[in-house]
Amino acid sequence: MPRDNSIKSVLIIGSGPIVIGQACEFDYSGSQAARSLKEEGIRVTLINSNPATIMTDKVTAENIYLLPLEVKSIVKILEENKDIDAVLPTMGGQTALNLAMKCDEMGIWKKYGIRMIGVDIDAIEVTEDRDKFRARMESIGVGMAPSKICRSFLEGKEIAQDFGFPLVIRPSFTLGGSGGSVVYDKKDFDKLLDRGLHTSPIHEVLIDKAVLGWKEYELELLRDNNDNVTIICSIENFDPMGVHTGDSITVAPAMTLSDSTFQKMRTMAIMMMRSIGNFAGGCNVQFAVNPDDSEEIIAIEINPRVSRSSALASKATGYPIAKIASKLAIGYNLDELENQITKSTSAFFEPTLDYVIVKIPRWNFDKFKGANRELGFQMKSVGEVMGIGRCFQEALQKACQSLEIKRNGLGADGREVTNQDELLKSLERPSWNRLFHIYDAIKLGISIKTIQKLTRIDPWFLNQIEEMILLENEISKYTLKDLPRDLFYEAKQKGYADRQIAHLLRCLESEVFNRRNELNIKRVYKLVDTCAAEFEAKTPYYYSTFEDENESIASDKKKIVVLGSGPNRIGQGIEFDYSCVHGVLAAKECGYETIMINCNPETVSTDFNVADKLYFEPVFWEHIYDIILNEKPEGVIVQLGGQTALKLAEKLERYGIKIIGTDYKSLDLAEDRGSFSNLLKENKIPYPEFGVIEDAEQAVELSKRLGFPLLVRPSYVLGGQSMKIVINEQELEQHVVNLLKDHPGNQVLLDHFLEGAIEAESDSICDGTDNYIIGIMEHIEPAGIHSGDSYAVLPPFDLSENVMKQIEEHTKTIAIALKTVGLLNIQFAIKNEVVYIIEANPRASRTVPFIAKAYDEPYVNYATKVMLGEKKVKDFNFNPRKKGYAIKIPVFSYEKFPEVTKELGPEMKSTGEAIYFIDDLTDEFFHTIYSERNLYLSK
Q1: Segments of 834-937 assigned E as strands
Q2: How many C-beta atoms surround the C-beta of residue 345 within 10 A?
Q3: Do 585 and 607 meet the contact criterion of CB atoms below 8 Å apart?
Q4: pLDDT for 166-209, tens place per residue?
Q5: How far apart are CA 373 and CA 897, in angstroms?
């Protein structure tokens, strides 16, 4: 059936602020869907309250509503846009589905004559209501774990008595496993049942008999109006049942599944999708498989929408699921659409991979002191990375190199745990570091049989890690000079970094690099091609490996590299991806060939049609340098990818690679507290008194001069990591000792803390001569709460003219003194009408997308053109749309860590943000948040 021409205007519902369980994969799917519908001449209206997304940007759709995701916002949109025919709610995660359901219940879609496309109400109800889902699966003969619905405390106790322990509690209508848990012990049951019933919006949970230790798989499906179904990707969880799939290491394609079981699973998935409703769109289906010889399969759940896994599957296969799903939603059939990679086969062609991908989640437990770090049915990770390699081991090493947790890959870096008891305990109860502990346990000599018994991870995966350790032992017998080429080559093919090989050979990374090139062991680049090279790929989407043929041929055009921001984490999230995408688009406009390097599968920047060339590689020095040698760009943009990209500036400078925009000297000057303070002193700009110390004794001495309270922090960190306000010598000594243990060799800064000060910040664009302030924000909370955790108001609401003048003057002076070319964020503390400088960051900041959305101006585009030297600040006709105030609302994910106190301090804890517009300061919302401004401040 060709396209339904009656659909001319579509509303897409976004997913709102980023929380654990619902991250920027929905920015990727929402923007893909919008672009896909625009191609068809359809008018797209978007609603999302998240200002940091590309989805809510004019490059995606013209008609954007930055409003809270609630029914009254939908009514406002439908009143103002009478032409909307249909709503697509499958691109915004659980938030969008729940909102669509609510509008349906209230008769809003019916009242305005709106059709739901991409899914139907029955499908949402069947999949979200655990009782209906179980009944539907029974009716089609698909097995499930024994389970019962529970709607009261008493009912739950009876079910537990009936089933025995361990049990699984799954609340209905929740996200990222919220409120879900595995109950091993009777004594924990009451508390966990109570939490589950309260988390579910309809106060209903499903209690399953736990099938812990079974293998877990996911399939990504697409179906069209003719009932054709195609399987895009099979994904196998490295971790067995018992760990939420968002917290599991996952591998595609499935590695340990027999063909007959895969065919059975395929048939079941298609049957399940057809049974839940008659709609055209995407689906994610999860299964558990008994690890014994029977390979019995049971269904866990089905999501009739795009998901985190479909973003992963899209990046793994190069098959843009959201794009095709939105075409199917408006009536096209799979065989009428072209494969986006080959351009010569149809979208009905199932991808076949001749490489392996490994996804590893990224956690941030360090931000949640006292959090239970065990992994279970409730998701806790804040981001993820993906590695692509020719074999599992190469993909695994590349994923570990992408994590940015101070490791050089899996092992071979001298950071092993050697305490046997600690390892055995860690293997039994999974946490974020279990993968590293499996490696350590094998290295220590604990048998594979014991490890398998404790972890229940398939022996195939454990044997792969054991093979790596045997290879390391072999390499360690040699020196760099006499290491045989075939052994060297094998290590590189298995993903080992030069740094890891240097550790094994007791030499320098640069020596390994030079020797590798002498032996002609060079990285080559392969296309992600979906069809295992049966059909030629036309899309410039590459991964590296060690083979003979290089498929990434460098052009002779002038080109620019943009370094991405790696995995999402607290302090560095989607806002940097927004900046990278705009940087790429601006460089394209200036006639450059654009090259994107990033390893985050959730993002828009790793969509193969954003940059001219995408390298899906770790943002890790060795990988970047080899790409630069292959491409020979004019230079590299580092100020858009957060601290990840900025940290690589020194290396780029040392290797003579041009940094586009602000140079390394200025970047380093802003980071080095001593030099930066000298710059402020020379320019007569006030700053809180501070000092630099190297041990606890020096700290106590310095505190006598500076006076308490003190702000204590390591230098060169992002998101206020490890910052603390201390009020006496005992606290000071304790924190300094802990810091130096966690950051050996680092300097610690002590600042006099300006208690009761007002905090503000400015963002500006500078070309080295002229500076333009794009926005000044005032924080509602007092100084002492990290700027990322504060409500920020644009423009300021009660700063005097005198203070505003000081902020403007200081911003300009610092921008010019730092020789800034591009973006600059400065944070201020204001006390007794004096403006003090807290810090300056010559890079894109968290607030740039917020200001760009509030004032409706493409500031990153302008800043990139300034960095490239294509434009000067005075070439732009700045025309911000200023009406009322915009408030940046921090959003937290505390419900994932019920045991953690909700206090706020100088270390950032929020996972995302929303934007809220008010006309004036009499607004009720403003008064509420202003009255609570001191509520969560902690020392």
Answers
A1: 834-841, 885-891, 912-918
A2: 14
A3: no
A4: 888 988 877 667 888 888 888 888 888 988 998 888 889 988 88
A5: 9
